[in-house]
Design a protein that fits this description.
Elements lengths: L1 E6 L2 E6 L6 H8 L18 E4 L2 E4 L12 E3 L12 H8 L9 H14 L5 H7 L10 H19 L2
Parallel strand pairs: 1-5
Antiparallel strand pairs: 1-2, 3-4, 3-5
Amino acid sequence: MKIDFRLNGAAIQVDCAADRRVIDLLREDLGLTGAKESCGAGECGSCAILVDGEGKLSCLMLAAQLEGREITTVEGLASEGRLHPLQEAFVEKGAVQCGFCTPGAVMASLDLLRRNPNPARAEIREGLAGNLCRCTGYQKIIDAVEAASKIMQRRERP
């Protein structure tokens, strides 16, 4: 089946089985390995991507669901050689250790900040509830999202 969609800003067409999981399409066919598969059941958040600006778990999606949609992966966040403010904040706040959960946590955080540009710490915790981290702990991740929120708000002001 031919599937047309936009991926990180570029129009693409893929030919694959309609029931191929999006995580497999991204990683194996398109070489975008930022999204990770850990649980394969939508429990860990490591495969998070944005679909039309909304957070989705790529291990639970089928390729046919991408038709006509705008997909953003963690690889699509940096621009002009600069990390996205969320990526910068994760590095600066030490919210990265082994890195396995990081892309999913960054994408879930971006989804949260698009819906709520100035979340309280409790709202950040709730927004990241579906993302599991076994190394860093959640305080540094919450600190990073809080810092990124402030940076992103400053950049959006005229």
